Protein backbone atom coordinates (compact mmCIF):
# COMPACT_ATOMS: atom_id res chain seq x y z
CA UNK A 1 0.00 0.00 0.00
CA UNK A 2 1.37 3.39 -0.91
CA UNK A 3 2.01 5.88 1.85
CA UNK A 4 -0.68 8.21 0.51
CA UNK A 5 -3.23 5.42 0.47
CA UNK A 6 -2.30 4.41 4.00
CA UNK A 7 -2.65 7.99 5.16
CA UNK A 8 -6.05 8.25 3.49
CA UNK A 9 -7.21 5.07 5.19
CA UNK A 10 -6.12 6.34 8.57
CA UNK A 11 -8.04 9.57 7.98
CA UNK A 12 -11.17 7.68 6.96
CA UNK A 13 -10.90 5.42 10.00
CA UNK A 14 -10.55 8.50 12.19
CA UNK A 15 -13.73 10.04 10.80
CA UNK A 16 -15.54 6.76 11.16
CA UNK A 17 -14.52 6.25 14.77
CA UNK A 18 -15.38 9.80 15.69
CA UNK A 19 -18.89 9.24 14.52
CA UNK A 20 -19.44 6.15 16.61
CA UNK A 21 -20.61 7.37 19.92
CA UNK A 22 -23.42 6.11 22.04
CA UNK A 23 -26.74 7.77 21.75
CA UNK A 24 -29.98 7.03 23.47
CA UNK A 25 -32.87 8.00 25.66
CA UNK A 26 -34.93 6.90 28.62
CA UNK A 27 -38.40 5.70 27.58
CA UNK A 28 -39.82 4.61 30.96
CA UNK A 29 -40.13 6.81 32.86
CA UNK A 30 -40.01 8.99 29.76
CA UNK A 31 -37.42 11.73 29.87
CA UNK A 32 -38.36 15.41 29.78
CA UNK A 33 -36.92 15.75 26.27
CA UNK A 34 -38.81 12.71 24.93
CA UNK A 35 -42.16 13.07 26.73
CA UNK A 36 -43.72 14.81 23.68
CA UNK A 37 -43.31 11.57 21.71
CA UNK A 38 -45.80 9.94 24.10
CA UNK A 39 -48.39 12.68 23.94
CA UNK A 40 -47.40 14.71 26.98
CA UNK A 41 -48.03 18.44 26.50
CA UNK A 42 -44.39 19.53 26.55
CA UNK A 43 -41.88 21.16 24.27
CA UNK A 44 -40.50 18.93 21.49
CA UNK A 45 -36.81 18.12 21.46
CA UNK A 46 -35.95 16.40 18.20
CA UNK A 47 -32.44 15.63 19.43
CA UNK A 48 -33.72 13.79 22.47
CA UNK A 49 -31.37 10.84 21.93
CA UNK A 50 -28.39 13.16 22.22
CA UNK A 51 -28.68 14.88 25.59
CA UNK A 52 -24.98 14.47 26.22
CA UNK A 53 -23.53 17.25 28.35
CA UNK A 54 -23.03 19.52 25.34
CA UNK A 55 -21.06 16.89 23.36
CA UNK A 56 -17.39 17.81 22.89
CA UNK A 57 -17.95 20.97 24.93
CA UNK A 58 -17.90 18.76 28.01
CA UNK A 59 -14.24 17.99 27.39
CA UNK A 60 -12.98 21.13 25.65
CA UNK A 61 -14.60 23.78 27.83
CA UNK A 62 -16.18 22.28 30.91
CA UNK A 63 -13.35 20.13 32.28
CA UNK A 64 -15.47 16.99 31.95
CA UNK A 65 -18.39 18.44 33.92
CA UNK A 66 -21.99 17.74 32.97
CA UNK A 67 -25.25 19.45 33.88
CA UNK A 68 -27.49 17.72 36.45
CA UNK A 69 -29.87 16.60 33.70
CA UNK A 70 -27.42 16.21 30.83
CA UNK A 71 -27.11 19.78 29.54
CA UNK A 72 -23.99 21.73 28.70
CA UNK A 73 -22.53 22.55 32.14
CA UNK A 74 -21.78 26.13 31.07
CA UNK A 75 -25.46 26.94 30.44
CA UNK A 76 -27.30 29.13 32.94
CA UNK A 77 -29.58 27.29 35.38
CA UNK A 78 -32.28 26.20 35.00
CA UNK A 79 -30.63 24.56 31.96
CA UNK A 80 -33.00 23.28 29.21
CA UNK A 81 -33.53 19.80 30.71
CA UNK A 82 -33.77 20.93 34.34
CA UNK A 83 -36.83 21.71 36.41
CA UNK A 84 -37.97 25.13 35.17
CA UNK A 85 -36.04 24.79 31.89
CA UNK A 86 -37.60 24.61 28.40
CA UNK A 87 -38.19 20.86 28.68
CA UNK A 88 -38.54 20.68 32.47
CA UNK A 89 -42.11 21.86 32.99
CA UNK A 90 -42.86 19.48 35.85
CA UNK A 91 -45.36 17.30 33.98
CA UNK A 92 -45.47 14.00 35.90
CA UNK A 93 -45.06 11.09 33.49
CA UNK A 94 -45.26 8.16 35.89
CA UNK A 95 -46.57 7.17 39.28
CA UNK A 96 -44.66 4.29 40.79
CA UNK A 97 -44.32 2.26 43.94
CA UNK A 98 -40.92 1.12 45.18
CA UNK A 99 -40.28 -1.26 42.32
CA UNK A 100 -40.09 0.05 38.83
CA UNK A 101 -39.14 -1.23 35.40
CA UNK A 102 -36.97 1.24 33.58
CA UNK A 103 -36.80 1.15 29.81
CA UNK A 104 -33.89 2.63 27.93
CA UNK A 105 -33.44 2.77 24.19
CA UNK A 106 -30.04 3.28 22.63
CA UNK A 107 -29.86 4.47 19.05
CA UNK A 108 -26.16 3.59 19.06
CA UNK A 109 -24.81 1.12 21.57
CA UNK A 110 -21.21 1.82 22.48
CA UNK A 111 -21.24 -0.39 25.59
CA UNK A 112 -20.44 1.06 29.01
CA UNK A 113 -22.66 1.46 32.07
CA UNK A 114 -25.98 2.87 33.25
CA UNK A 115 -26.58 4.41 36.66
CA UNK A 116 -29.80 5.75 38.11
CA UNK A 117 -30.57 8.34 40.79
CA UNK A 118 -33.58 10.04 42.19
CA UNK A 119 -34.04 13.47 43.77
CA UNK A 120 -37.20 14.67 45.53
CA UNK A 121 -38.07 18.28 44.75
CA UNK A 122 -39.61 20.03 47.71
CA UNK A 123 -40.86 23.13 45.99
CA UNK A 124 -42.31 23.73 42.55
CA UNK A 125 -39.36 25.77 41.45
CA UNK A 126 -36.52 24.00 43.18
CA UNK A 127 -33.57 22.79 41.15
CA UNK A 128 -32.16 19.29 41.12
CA UNK A 129 -28.71 19.17 42.68
CA UNK A 130 -25.87 16.66 42.58
CA UNK A 131 -25.96 16.50 46.40
CA UNK A 132 -29.60 15.51 46.24
CA UNK A 133 -29.07 12.83 43.56
CA UNK A 134 -26.09 11.46 45.45
CA UNK A 135 -28.27 10.92 48.52
CA UNK A 136 -30.57 8.62 46.53
CA UNK A 137 -28.59 6.25 44.30
CA UNK A 138 -30.76 3.56 42.77
CA UNK A 139 -30.19 -0.08 43.49
CA UNK A 140 -30.91 -2.65 40.80
CA UNK A 141 -33.13 -5.64 41.34
CA UNK A 142 -32.28 -6.84 37.87
CA UNK A 143 -31.26 -10.51 37.80
CA UNK A 144 -27.73 -10.06 36.39
CA UNK A 145 -26.94 -6.95 38.41
CA UNK A 146 -28.73 -7.76 41.64
CA UNK A 147 -28.09 -5.24 44.42
CA UNK A 148 -25.65 -3.33 42.27
CA UNK A 149 -25.74 0.43 41.65
CA UNK A 150 -24.40 -0.01 38.15
CA UNK A 151 -25.83 -1.74 35.10
CA UNK A 152 -23.13 -3.16 32.87
CA UNK A 153 -24.29 -3.21 29.24
CA UNK A 154 -23.86 -6.88 28.34
CA UNK A 155 -24.03 -6.79 24.53
CA UNK A 156 -25.08 -4.72 21.53
CA UNK A 157 -28.81 -4.89 22.10
CA UNK A 158 -30.60 -1.55 21.84
CA UNK A 159 -33.58 -1.86 24.18
CA UNK A 160 -33.11 -2.43 27.88
CA UNK A 161 -35.72 -3.28 30.49
CA UNK A 162 -34.14 -2.98 33.89
CA UNK A 163 -35.81 -3.67 37.18
CA UNK A 164 -34.86 -1.22 39.90
CA UNK A 165 -35.67 -0.52 43.52
CA UNK A 166 -36.66 3.04 44.37
CA UNK A 167 -35.68 4.46 47.76
CA UNK A 168 -38.30 4.26 50.51
CA UNK A 169 -39.46 7.81 50.15
CA UNK A 170 -42.72 9.09 48.85
CA UNK A 171 -42.78 12.23 46.81
CA UNK A 172 -45.28 14.03 44.66
CA UNK A 173 -42.52 15.34 42.46
CA UNK A 174 -39.34 13.32 42.23
CA UNK A 175 -36.75 13.57 39.49
CA UNK A 176 -35.60 10.22 38.20
CA UNK A 177 -32.26 10.29 36.40
CA UNK A 178 -30.53 7.95 33.99
CA UNK A 179 -26.81 8.33 33.32
CA UNK A 180 -25.11 6.47 30.50
CA UNK A 181 -21.33 6.45 30.55
CA UNK A 182 -19.87 4.95 27.39
CA UNK A 183 -16.60 3.04 27.14
CA UNK A 184 -13.53 5.15 26.40
CA UNK A 185 -13.12 6.49 22.88
CA UNK A 186 -9.82 6.88 20.99
CA UNK A 187 -8.93 9.91 23.08
CA UNK A 188 -9.62 8.17 26.36
CA UNK A 189 -12.82 10.12 26.94
CA UNK A 190 -16.04 8.66 28.25
CA UNK A 191 -19.11 10.32 26.85
CA UNK A 192 -22.01 10.87 29.20
CA UNK A 193 -25.67 10.87 28.27
CA UNK A 194 -28.15 11.93 30.89
CA UNK A 195 -31.95 12.13 31.05
CA UNK A 196 -34.28 13.35 33.78
CA UNK A 197 -37.93 12.39 34.17
CA UNK A 198 -40.61 13.69 36.52
CA UNK A 199 -42.31 11.00 38.60
CA UNK A 200 -44.40 10.44 41.70
CA UNK A 201 -43.38 7.77 44.19
CA UNK A 202 -46.19 6.38 46.32
C1 LIG B 1 -45.95 -2.04 42.38
O1 LIG B 1 -46.46 -1.70 41.10
C2 LIG B 1 -46.36 -2.75 40.17
C3 LIG B 1 -46.78 -2.21 38.80
O2 LIG B 1 -47.93 -1.45 38.87
C4 LIG B 1 -47.22 -3.93 40.65
O3 LIG B 1 -47.13 -4.99 39.72
C5 LIG B 1 -46.71 -4.38 42.01
O4 LIG B 1 -47.53 -5.41 42.52
C6 LIG B 1 -46.67 -3.22 42.99
N1 LIG B 1 -46.01 -3.64 44.22
C7 LIG B 1 -46.49 -3.35 45.44
C8 LIG B 1 -45.67 -3.82 46.58
O5 LIG B 1 -47.50 -2.70 45.59
C1 LIG C 1 -35.84 17.65 49.48
O1 LIG C 1 -35.95 17.13 50.79
C2 LIG C 1 -35.27 15.91 50.98
C3 LIG C 1 -35.60 15.42 52.39
O2 LIG C 1 -35.23 16.35 53.33
C4 LIG C 1 -33.77 16.11 50.77
O3 LIG C 1 -33.08 14.91 50.96
C5 LIG C 1 -33.56 16.61 49.35
O4 LIG C 1 -32.19 16.89 49.14
C6 LIG C 1 -34.38 17.86 49.09
N1 LIG C 1 -34.31 18.21 47.69
C7 LIG C 1 -33.54 19.18 47.18
C8 LIG C 1 -33.59 19.38 45.71
O5 LIG C 1 -32.82 19.88 47.87
UniProtKB/TrEMBL annotation:
Keywords: Signal. It comes from the Eukaryota. Residues 1-22 form the signal peptide. Pfam families: LPMO_10. This is Chitin-binding type-4 domain-containing protein. Residues 24-199 form the Chitin-binding type-4 domain. It comes from Frieseomelitta varia.
Amino acid sequence: MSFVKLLLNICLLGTFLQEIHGQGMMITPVSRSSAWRFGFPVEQNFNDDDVSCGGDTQFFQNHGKCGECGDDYAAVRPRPNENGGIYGTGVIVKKSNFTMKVKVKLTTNNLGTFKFHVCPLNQTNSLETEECFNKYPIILSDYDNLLSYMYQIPNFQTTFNIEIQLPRISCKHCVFRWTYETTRDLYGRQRIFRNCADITIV
